[in-house]
Amino acid sequence: MSEQAIVDPDIGYQLIPTEAxxxxxQVDHLYYGLLGLSALLIAIxxxxxxxxxxxxxxxxTGARRxxxxxxxxxxxxIGFAAMLALFFMGLFYWGSHLYMDVYGDxxxxxxxxxxxxxxxxxxxxxxxxxxxxxxxxxxxxxVTLRLTxxxxxxxxxxxxxxxxxxxxxxxxxxxxxxxxxTGEFRLFCAEYCGxxxxxxxxxxxxxxxxxxxxxLTRHGEGPSPAVAGKQLFQSHGCTGCHQDSAGAPAPxxxxxxxxxxxxxxxxxxxxxxxxxxxSILQPQKHVVAGFQPIMPSxxxxxxxxxxxxxxxxxxxxxxxxxxxxxxxxxxx
Amino acid sequence: MITxxxxxxxxxxYLSHDWTLRGxxxxxxxxxxxxxxxxxxxxxxxxxxxxxxxxxxxxxxxPGDLLSSETYNKMFSLHGIVMVWFFLIPSIxxxxxxFLMPMMVGAKDMAFPxxxxxxxxxxxxxxxxxxxxxxxxGVDTGWTFYTPFSSLFSNSAVIAAATGVFVVGFSSIxxxxxxIVTTHTMRAPGLTWKRLPLFVWANYAxxxxxxxxxxxxxxxxxxxxxxxxxxxxxxxxxxxxDPLLFQHLFWFYSHPxxxxxxxxxxxxxxxxxxxxxxxxxxxxxxMVISIAAIALFGFVVWGHHMFVSGQSLYAGILFSFxxxxxxxxxxxxxxxxxxTLFRGHIWFSAPMIYALSFLGLFTIGGLTGVFLAxxxxxxxxxxxxxxxxxxxYIMVGGAVTAYLGGLHFWWPKMTGRMYSELxxxxxxxxxxxxxxxxxxxxxLLGYSGMPRRYHDYPEAFExxxxxxxxxxxxxxxxxLLPLVYLGWSLWRGPRAPANxxxxxxxxxxxxxxxxxxNFTETPKVTGGPYVYD
Lengths: 332, 533
Description:
The structure holds two protein chains of two kinds.
Chain A: H1 22-55, H2 70-103, E1 110-117, E2 120-124, E3 130-132, E4 134-138, E5 142-149, E6 154-158, E7 163-167, E8 173-178, E9 183-189, E10 202-207, H3 209-219, H4 225-235, H5 239-242, E11 260-262, E12 268-270, H6 273-281, H7 304-316, H8 321-329
Parallel strand pairs in A: 1-5, 4-10
Antiparallel strand pairs in A: 1-2, 2-3, 5-8, 6-7, 6-9, 9-10, 11-12
Chain B: H1 2-11, H2 21-25, H3 30-58, H4 69-104, H5 113-135, H6 149-153, H7 158-185, H8 198-230, H9 243-277, H10 284-297, H11 313-341, H12 350-373, H13 375-381, H14 385-415, H15 421-447, H16 462-492
Helix pairs in contact in B: 3-4, 3-5, 3-16, 4-5, 4-7, 4-8, 4-9, 4-14, 5-7, 7-8, 8-9, 8-10, 9-11, 9-12, 9-14, 10-11, 11-12, 12-14, 12-15, 14-15, 15-16
């Protein structure tokens, strides 16, 4: 049993958690809107039950007045349904609009990789700095979290940012936020993931840019992900096929990222992170046109964090890079 | 007294007729099968309740101290599995529905009496598997069995528990089939579709959902078993599978399953409110259309359980849209129940208190469902106690409260005995107060960020957890009391007349308790339902 200490931030009970981003404030406005509507409807309902229960109690006998006629009844029903539907459509739009903000794919200032694992969060910063169960981010900059899991489904939840995203094995999911307030906030795993699910929690530390830089230098260790990825690329023998000179059995990868790749069978696919990940783990899934499906799978030989490094390396390759590499490659 | 009851026995109502073990276990009488179900689901209800009590005891303090994390996880899994499949799904349909559907349409029995008995045996076999899983050490996947945790990572009795659920699904399908065919073919002369009681409409719609949705669960659990037992890659990405596929399939059944639980409850409440306000249900046609709309839209909202899962952004938006839509017919029903009280002649009997509790609790459950339908808000609230509170307001505040209301309403018909007026009101109030005390604090916990299924939690949440646990104690009283006074009434309760509430509906024309074939002669129907003056 892992009995690692839990690092809960020192926050008391908050009916409404700190709004650590503008987005959080907007979500709360939606919440207040719905609370208002609900309070009104419940007050009307309870009021009517109370009034009717008193006014029309069976002890109060007397001549009964006629009930609402069928036609008027239909009008009431349809009017009520239409009014409610109108309100709901407004709320639907409001909620969806904000949803696009967190999960949309606009570019951000920083992309941080997060890997869920029974029972901890592993975080990788762009410069290669790593941390566990804590996420340090600079204030005022947009951050994209790119999540995946090494085993079961987890969910990265930061209530102060009104943000939550599942980390699903075999997939990359993303979520965006821009913190507007420095401080320490709660971090939870929200999707049940086994025995120590409730211990898979920690802190999000929002700091100024300068403090973040400082923190990175103090904790930074090892090479950047792209450099680490290059080392992996060589040590796993990928260069043997991919980086061979003319007539290589595998496609060259420089300038690959973001390009549209033609596949065997006539389809095309955009070479994004998921494509690169799939090509490493399930090479038969998308075979590039003109090549044989001979690449072995590296599933089980390479961890999720190493895949992130490989992707970082491949993303860093500009068109023509390898041509120069080959020239100088003799010295490596 | 003894002679009197002898005389009655000689006349032969369904209970006195052949009171032997064989007479019960081989019965094809829908009324006796209803009792077999009632006894079984009551057993499972208290088993699931015991698990809930342990959960609430553990959560009184922030550190995970009373139970180990394994035991805690097994407790909430047991609670969910038992309450959903072995109590809530069969609750109203298999007991009140079984007893009343044939009577309300003026028939002697269900269309397929033997299938009806078979469905109870299948339920029992499924139940035995589930109990075996508990004895084998329990299961820790939660009632949702999410993959790849359930298929590869859990070390508990997943296969046994899933088999129990797999098997019990067939009993659900058979009950649904019986409801559909009975409604279509067994109606008394003159009982047109427009004259059917809303309870029949609700159970008919429930039958359709059972028959259409349950097979998907069956297949899903089969696939889960194939992956776990034989290593065939379906949901596990390491084997080329897709973990989200499981969620899609699971919720394709499990969301409509919520309507399997709530539609019959709505049927019960319609009958009770009409009777005790002595008014016809306001907007009968609107009520029927709403039932149909809920049943239909219930099939296209499953993705709202997956807003944070990584399903496509646009799928999320579409599912949110349909979820808002499904709230409209539910709201119309609430309006109509309230309007039924208008210019009525209201009697706050115990069933009425339950029905009005339902109205309030269901409304809170429904409105908080609208919070969760709003995408961005769901991202914050997903997998928190807000969701726990929301679905308990629907399933417990709604379905269980209506079940108890219905049980009290038709108790005189089913047993031929009256129960204590005073104690039944005390129990109904204890339930209302205990329920709100238990679950209202959970909404607050949820918005402040407290995740579900946590055994150990930050101390800041402790106070609200204590309130919730206190409430669960009061709630337990609300559930135990009826066991006592209803049980007592079986032997000591005053004899019930055929129609103690002066209610309309064919079931009230029969004796209390009814004779073996319900009616001495087939009733003829000449008017609509709820002809209260």
